[in-house]
Amino acid sequence: MKTVIKGYPHLLHGGDYNPEQWLDCPEVLEEDVRLMKEAHVNCVSLGIFSWAKLEPAEGEYHFGWLRKIIDRLYENGIYTILATPSGAMPHWLAEQYDEVRQVGPDGLRNLPGRRHNFCPTSPLMRRKVKKIDRELSRRLGDHPGVILWHISNEYGNNRLGGACHCELCQEAFREWLQKKYGTLDALNHAWWTTFWSHTYTSWDQIHSPVPHGEIGIHGLNLDWKRFVSDQMQDFCLSEIKAVRKYSDKPVTINMMEFFRPFDYYKFAKQLDIISWDSYPQWYAGTDDRETAMRTAACHTLMRSLKKAPFLMMESTPSIVNWKDVNTQKRPGLHELASLQAVACGSDSVQYFQWRKSRGGEEKFHGAVIDHRNGSNTRVFREVAALGERLEQISDAVYPTCNKPRAAILFDWENWWAVEDIQGPRKNMAYLDTVISHFKPFWELGIEVDFINEEDPMEGYALVAAPMAYLYRKGYAEKVKKYVEEGGTYLTTFFSGVVDENDLCILDRHPLEDVLGIRTEEMDAVIPEVLPNTISFADNCWQVGQLREVSHVVEDAENPIEVLSSYEEDYYQGAPALTRKKYGKGCALYLACETEEGFLKVLYEKLAEDCRIRGEFTGRLPQGVAVSRRDGEKPVWFLQNFNRAAVQVELPFVCHVVPDGRTLEGNVTLRPYECLIVTN
Ligand code: GAL
């Protein structure tokens, strides 16, 4: 089993620490170390926004203060996750060199200020970042207290999502395209530019898609998104290479859930450890189930990127300051939300931030240490209690990891393509569709991974591929082989429609043989105006907005079963859900959106057929989730997201972690309780 940080086999507890804001208050820094120990903090992230303190003027370095703090923390058993400071530029850099500042789609270059807004192509920016990163690595990269590199901060987290439209980026984009297509003829064909007479006759005619320019060529839009992601990935790689010059410590970047602009699967390949910043919107409604489920999906994505434990690099111990309404976590929720991350595969609980800043835009963001009350707060006490609990469960949890036998296809390129469609409805809602397929697994207590079209499928008994619209090269063959060899594959309406260039696939669905379906029409309706139903598992279910009209393709050798058909409208009797045996496995096709309960019943049946039911499947009250981390001994996390107590019937005799107390039969979970057990 892989451990997250070599030689440091513990769950991490800590967070972003900004001592550079307090260098003229040594008593504050002393107090911090004392309180960190009290809060059972064992690691902090340092240097994220320290560039101006590390290099106050070009080429003038001040590392002494940072070394002193890392030393002091290390002496006290607190490790450092050391950040490269490219997340925010010092004024000397941004003022002096225009090219480092990002240009918006309107052609306007940013003024100096704010953060996460550099041009990733600028050779000057790359040189300056490389220099400071190398210095950092040379001086501190082998410090025994440093356990991990935190490369930059939340790449792309500004209104432009990392995309810069400056001339350097336009040039780099054209080069990227030349490398990809070789000739303009190939590009014109892939982008279908004869449409509206937009054939390119010179590479210079190509510009990034912007609202006042070209946005109607889907191939251009898709390639621009690929380029933006690749360019930032390459920038990240240049930072990784810079720190690697003098240090072999592992590297991570702090990601942001399903962040549309970047293909994190690709980024993951160059990272040692995945980490992300989790800021769910609790108390958004009368219950927190939806928030809990969506947060679980985000954690799951992070674990899936490497099929390994990850780190929750940031979370708030109390409130954020940037949502419309910033609600305090009610007592108990912080512990549950933190343990939810661990349940889903995180080996850490870390915060933004340790101490509230005195000024600046985040002065009212939650922190472990308050402005006036210091550690004498409910928040501090809850953080300290959680820190103690993490220490107590560490041995049982570390090293283990969730090992799903089901997977859901979530593919960034598909996301970009689907959401650009001018088709059956304005918002095709790919991510929401994927989440709607994740939800039943979460509710049923069945572990699931996300995979993309390039990931292997072997090892999963069931793969669900909702709205898999864009088929990359080789995807159809992979699915075919997977089903032939015994896998169960479910896909839906709007799948296998375009190739990797977003060009419609002519002739037939690339998986027509496997699915046994030929689609003729795609309908999008207002369901209240044109209601429809399907029957399945002794129930009648409402059909949703998107509905495909398909025909069965007869296959004498492998007959197709129609499990459910439309009951109304001119397509009454047309197949809505089919199953076809193919090789040793089978393929299912769901032709329409449906009400939520249908997917739960469908996946429960499939889980039964594929023998992947979880121990708690069918026993979980609403709002109670279970996750299983496997290792020498599996550990289950039973999480009650309800604001009230609930009863759960245990499927076996359980031993509570860490005290070994035995539980069996019915147990009561308190509001927000997370019960951790082994068998
Ligand atoms: C994150 C960011 C942190 C801090 C935090 C506030 O997105 O990485 O630096 O701003 O949000 O919630």
Automatic annotation (TrEMBL):
Q: Which stretches are transmembrane?
A: none
EC numbers for this chain? 3.2.1.23
The Beta-galactosidase C-terminal domain covers which part of the protein?
627-678
**Molecular-function GO terms, alphabetical:** beta-galactosidase activity; metal ion binding
Top-level taxonomic group: Bacteria
Which protein family is it in?
Belongs to the glycosyl hydrolase 42 family.
Q: Can you name this protein?
A: Beta-galactosidase
According to its UniProt entry, this protein's organism is Candidatus Eisenbergiella merdipullorum
Lineage, opening ranks:
Bacteria, Bacillati, Bacillota, Clostridia, Lachnospirales
